[in-house]
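help with these tokens:
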Amino acid sequence: MGLKGFAEGGIASIIAGASTHPLDLIKVRMQLQDTNTMPLVRKIVAGLIFGAVGNPPDVAMVRMQADGRLPIEQRRNYKSVVDALSQMSKAGGCR
């Protein structure tokens, strides 16, 4: 694992944070507004967008960090966050 694993986990964490933090700020601002006047459809769309954009990088971060703990024959050996996301989409698709 060592330094390479530390760097890969850190990079995955940074990308996950960079993709979810702006959306989280938008979500908090929307929550602080008077949401009683906001249409339900708008609230649902905001939640769907946040989930669709924020979840895959977070899953990639967790998988990259846990990959080093798997037995060698079960490791996915992700090269980068982009590689992790592409392998995840090829293996599981959108669910």
The chain has one domain: 2-92. The CA atoms of residues 16 and 57 lie 5 Å apart. The two ends are 30 Å apart (CA to CA).
